Backbone:
């Protein structure tokens, strides 16, 4: 059995700013949700591989749970860094992570922490192994 992530749903009180942010990362609106009054209340943003971010308008975020962060794989971390900077989005400097990938991070307009990752030939996501980290739950 093969599985993959279908979508992540995030809440937003500013659909326009949220869509503009993810467009910088190359996502495009696939389809939208409209209520019975015809108002735009959300949409699906598409990655290239039929994986999506669902964005739903809300006035008050719900208590369903906490997403610490999510990561987006990119094929050119330097180009993505430049695009984010060009759009005045605060982004960290590129670093080589302990799992041997290149990474930058930023926040979307809703405050969601995003890792942008470029795998290397040594990335543990590709080759496996044990990644030693300084972390205590």
Residues:
């Amino acid at each position: 059995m093969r599985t993959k992530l279908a979508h992540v749903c995030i809440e937003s009180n500013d659909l326009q700013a949220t869509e503009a942010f993810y467009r910088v990362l190359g996502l495009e609106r696939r389809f939208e949700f409209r209520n019975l009054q015809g108002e735009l209340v959300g949409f699906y943003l598409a990655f290239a591989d039929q994986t999506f971010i669902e964005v739903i308008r809300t006035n008050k975020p719900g208590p369903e749970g906490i997403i610490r962060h999510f990561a987006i794989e990119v094929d050119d971390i330097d180009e993505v860094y430049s695009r984010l900077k060009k759009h005045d989005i605060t982004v960290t400097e590129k670093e080589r992570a302990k799992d041997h990938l290149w990474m930058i991070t930023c926040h979307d307009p809703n405050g969601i922490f995003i890792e942008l990752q470029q795998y290397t030939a040594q990335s543990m996501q590709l080759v496996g192994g044990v990644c030693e980290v300084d972390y205590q739950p």
Observations:
- The beta strands are 7-12, 28-34, 40-46, 52-57, 70-73, 95-96, 102-107, 113-118.
- The mean pLDDT is 90.
- The CA atoms of residues 10 and 55 lie 5 Å apart.
